[in-house]
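Review form for a predicted model. The reviewer records the input and the model, then writes brief findings.
Reviewer: anonymous (R2)
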Amino acid sequence: MARLGITLEQVTEAATALSNEGIKPTVAAVRERLGSGSYSTITKHLSAWRDSQQPVSEPVVEMPDSVTSAMGKLWITACGEAQAQVKAEREALASSTIEHEAETAELRAEIEHLEGETASMADDIKQVEAERDASIDALNSRLVITARLEERLIAADQLNIQLKEEVEVLHSLIKGGADHSEKEST
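Model under review:
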């Protein structure tokens, strides 16, 4: 007995069911749904089904002149409204741009002013640091002089003590010699 092949109706039913389920009707998907069939037969019948699914184009009906005229007027009105809206938005944008440019100019002027103040403060700081360094140098110089004077004062005090001791020795020698002379004269 001859084997019956897959029919166009079977492929059409399977492809339609797959499509309704949201599955793309491919040759493999239709064959799986049917359970058998040659790829070439299914391809041929699936192509026929796809061709039948193409929408039939309707004949073009021309619009009446009154509708064309009304659509033209509507188009002109819509274009005019759109141009007016674009013009208003451009003006608003231009105004906003001018405001932003003015703010930017003010901020730049403020930045320049602050940079000038910063430079002036930096100069002031350098001057104060130079004066501080000069004061420190002068103070260090005075400290050195004071230390030297203290050393000289200590040396002078020691010399003074030494001289006093020598004067005492001389006094005692003079006194002792005078006592000795008095004894001899007596």
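Findings: DSSP finds four helices and no strands in the chain.
Further findings: Residues 8-54 form one domain.
Recommendation: see findings above.
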